[in-house]
TrEMBL record:
This is Uncharacterized protein. Residues 1-36 are annotated as: Disordered. The lineage of its organism: Eukaryota, Sar, Stramenopiles, Bigyra, Opalozoa.
Amino acid sequence: NGVDIGGSTSSVGFETTDIGASHGGRGEANAKPPYGSFLQPTDLGSKANCRGGGAVRIVCDALTLADAASRIKANGCTQKQWGSGSGGSIWLTTRTLAGEGSVQANGGDYQGLYGQVGGGGRAAVYVSEDVSGWSGTVEVRSGTRGELLGGVGTMLLAFPDDGDGAHLSVVNAHTATETLET
């Protein structure tokens, strides 16, 4: 269920094969700065010792991610040795969004003893009319190795007026969220 866009060998956020790759957030131990747009994310995630996440752009009238197993993914690879890839880019524009599915541009996890996790990617979700039927999630976390060790990516959610005004949320930290009302 869903779409998995992966396989990027981009090297923009690549430092060495034993360090996590960067994109929207820094890979663990990576000195390369984040790159790409948080408003219109189209860049591929970067490789480390394995691939970064891909990039997907969807423009449609109505998008339904039917159940929790329905996902649009541009995650970096999970590595058992050396560095993991960074998350890619997801840019969605739709009139309505419904269902329980998720959007993921996560950094690659690490499952070994030596190596680093990938940084989070970038996701932008623009919904012009109705998001009331959607209960899913958007994820741009760094990879994990028991804890989050890389930089979280960026998430932009632009949803319509629900009576309190239109909402624009931009997230780029483990817990910080800024919400702007228009």
